[in-house]
Amino acid sequence: MMKKHINIPLFIPHMGCPNQCVFCDQRTISGACSFIRENARDTVEQTLASVSPETECEIAFFGGSFTGIDRQLMTDLLDMAQSYVDAGRVSGIRMSTRPDYIDDEILQILSRYTVSAVELGIQSMDDAVLTQCRRGHTAARTEEACRMLREAGIPWVGQMMIGLPGADGDTEKRCAEKICRMGACACRIYPTIVLQNTELARLTMEGIYTPLSVEEAALRSADVLEIFLAAGVSCLRIGLCDSESLHDPASCLAGPVHPAMGELVGSRIYRRIMEAALEAMMQNGLACGTELAVTVPKGDISLAVGQKRSNVREIERKYPVKLRKFLENPEQIRYNIKLGIFAEMQ
Fold it and tell me: What is the DSSP string of 151-187?
């Protein structure tokens, strides 16, 4: 059985970030208004005291551009985190940063620590989109950062966004394809949320930018997730962590806010897989009115059925079959199904 894994997040909102992207308000995203160095160890201790000894933990510096903060503060925090690694209390250290804050000096510093992953805020690999977002770097700079991390032997995670200004489904799919080709060990997918007091909020109120609906965000996220799955790149998360601030009009103006965006996207993936399987069965002479059983990996029945049975309703509307029963198989891996005649599987 695989060990449960958790990150111990230490948020450093805006620290180290050289510019303000049109979509960004890290204080709202992270729920943290400041970072106090002295509190970091307390946070780690409190988290470790609340988890079982069998849980694998990593200390994660999230929220800002960690490799762009004051060097002394950065090495102090890394020293603190490494002390927990050396004591066997955590397995490694991870951090989020921008592609333009990866260079030879940074890699030399990181080589002294047990860095399990660097999470790169790639967001897009289209220069026109990056310019509209005032990202402050090019796609070529991202490619260089990924190459440097790869050659240094440091695993990296590609974070990308859905629904950015100037982006569409094609630019997003190309971004996912490039993240795979550049050697990401994992990814995160974030539909764009319009936070108050950002440039994107102004563009939205002026009608220049139109946020995605929840349905649009789920479908476009599913499109890129399929690319990652086909390349064997695991997805760590889809959508921001749900928080009160994202449901507060004073903090969040618009956008596809949903408490379970990852489940919506996963459900759409399962619908596509079931539809593809049914198309093949229909071509092979599946009789109208056939009752079917669907076998999915353990824990994935709700994803396959869909919220409020949306997948079942849509499939039975499109195809002359009845999805009679959903079964679990712990030996199946996620996003794999088996369709069978219900009567034959009893």
Answer: HHT--EEEEEEES-TT--HHHHHHHHHHHHHTT-SEE
Please name which of 6, 86, 117 lies closest in space to residue 53, comparing C-alpha atoms.
6
> What pLDDT was estimated at residue 19?
66
Identity (one letter) of the amino acid at 227? Answer: I
Sequence-distant (6+) residues with CB within 8 A of 108 are none
How do 156-162 and 115-123 pair as beta strands?
parallel
Amino acid at 71: R
d(C-alpha 117, C-alpha 102), whole Å: 13
Q: Is residue 157 within 8 Å of residue 119, measured between CB atoms?
A: yes
What is the pairing mode between strands 234-238 and 186-191? parallel
Q: Looking at the DSSP assignment, which residues form a beta bridge with residue 115?
A: 93
For 192-202, what is each residue's pLDDT tens digit?
A: 999 998 999 99
Express the helix, strand and coil content of the chain in percent, nearest 5 each: 45, 20, 35
pLDDT of res. 250: 83
pLDDT tens digits along 42-91: 999 999 999 998 899 999 999 778 999 889 989 999 999 999 999 999 99
- Flag residues of the chain having pLDDT under 50: 1, 28-34
Question: Among 119, 51, 121, 118, which residue's Cα sits nearest to residue 84?
Answer: 51
Task: Provide CB contacts within 8 A for 81, sequence distance 6+.
Answer: 44, 59, 61, 90, 93, 113
pLDDT of residue 248: 78
Residue 159 and residue 120 in contact, taking contact as beta carbons nearer than 8 Å = yes
C-alpha to C-alpha distance for 125 and 143, rounded to whole angstroms = 9
pLDDT of residue 37: 66
Q: Which stretch of DSSP H or E encloses residue 9?
A: strand 5-11
Query: How many degrees, rounded to 5, is the angle at CA 76 between CA 47 and CA 54?
Result: 25
**Predicted model pTM:** 0.90
